[in-house]
Amino acid sequence: MELRDKQQHYRDQVREFAVQEIEPLARQIDDTGEYPRELFDKLSDFGLFGIQAPVEYGGQGLDTVSYAIAVEEASRVCGSTGIMVAAHNSLGIMPFILFGNSQQKEQYIPPLASGKNGLGSFGLTEPGAGSDAGATKTVAVREDSEWVINGNKCFITNAGMCQVLVITAKTEKIPGSRGISSFIVDRGTPGFVVGKKEDKMGLRGSDTRELAFENMRLPQEKMLGNEGEGFKQFMIILDGGRISIGAMALGLAQGAFDYALEHVKTSSFLGKPKTNYQSYQWKIADMYTKIQAARHLIWHSARLEDAHQKIVLESAMAKLYASEIATECVRMAMQIVGQRGYLEETPLERMYRDVRLCEVGEGTSEIQRIVISRNLFKSK
Ligand code: COS
Questions:
Q1: Residue 143 among the catalytic residues
Q2: Please, what sign has the CA dihedral across residues 150, 156, 161, 163?
Q3: pLDDT in tens, 85-124
């Protein structure tokens, strides 16, 4: 699948930036669980916090294919950076781009696109409403001209670094997903409590937290879109988010593959180059084929999105396939490299932990299969 010249040029630029600036700090980020401020500022200067935000709001105004490329390249060297960039762009800013009124766009997109004052975040998941996103228990009750919000959210990416986030809350007592609305919550709003950072298996430099809303009062102008539209808005956002997590999985798979390929090309076994052995040849061939197939699915979804076509089916397939082959490829790379891949001195053990999120985060593989099969059952 060919890239346009501009996309190819962007890919080269992001790769160079990722290799020079992000990769040398990837292990430190994983070890400490802290994201260095200096590197964060470099991501901001490079424009990675406003990839698809319109130029008039201070963003890069790039297409979805370029966005997927940026997430892939960042994740190829550092999963924590990949998910931070992915969650911010697709979940943090996109609700404002797609559903904000002009005042909300003007107020929120420029600072989010720069990232200098913090990131954007997305509060959908709750302790009792993960895969069943419509089971939201957070409630917003109207009192005079304000909404009083109570509830909890969990597994919220970038929560500790966010300047603003969009959340869902039930505004009407209608069962199921209808009656859910979206609200904009600024950091520092009284009653908005950010919990402690979660201690995760992988992606340790990415900031994941619980949130609580305790009699948090918001004026009507903090509602995003119309009352009752929250669930559909979030489903549309997640369609795009699936391209991002697919791209993140792809980057991790490509990073592991590159490491394994280099190992095979430069090592020998029983006095012969490893490239001579079918055992290595087949593993390398299988990995590369699957990685390319995943890239095709991701870029195809991204192109459909750029053409304003529906991507529900395609993005679910892209995320499902990329996540599953990425887990397989990282495991295969470790098998190729042997015990050295199990040591912290190689990136493989980190990738092995990082990649596991892709099959369980932003919609499990099982959820993707539900979305795919529902689409097939209803189509003629
Ligand atoms: N785009 C636009 N509208 C959509 C949509 C989409 N992708 N998906 C659903 N909708 C609409 C439906 O058309 C329906 O509209 P009407 O009420 O007008 O008929 C409404 O939303 C409800 O849809 P549905 O009945 O399919 O909702 P369900 O509760 O059955 O949804 C799944 C079930 C599992 C698909 C949904 O809860 C889901 O995607 N869960 C995963 C959530 C997730 O990924 N969480 C991780 C977040 S981490 S940031």
A1: no
A2: negative
A3: 999 999 999 999 999 999 999 999 999 999 999 999 999 9
| Active-site option among 56, 72, 362, 366 | 362
Express each pLDDT in 278-298 by its tens digit.
999 999 999 999 999 999 999
Question: What pLDDT sits at residue 379?
Answer: 63
Query: What Cα–Cα distance (Å) separates residue 316 from each residue in 15, 238, 245, 306, 324?
Result: 26, 9, 10, 16, 12
pTM above 0.70, yes or no: yes
Q: How far apart are alpha carbons 151 and 134 in whole angstroms?
A: 14
Name the average pLDDT for the chain: 96
Q: Kindly report the number of other CB atoms within 10 A of residue 260's CB atom.
A: 24
Whole-number Å distance between alpha carbons of 36 and 57: 26
Q: Which domains does the chain have, with CATH numbers?
A: 5-119 (1.10.540.10), 121-226 (2.40.110.10), 231-378 (1.20.140.10)
DSSP string, 211-246: EEEEEEEEEGGGEESSTT-HHHHHHHHHHHHHHHHH
Which ligand 1 atom sits nearest the alpha carbon of residue 157? 49
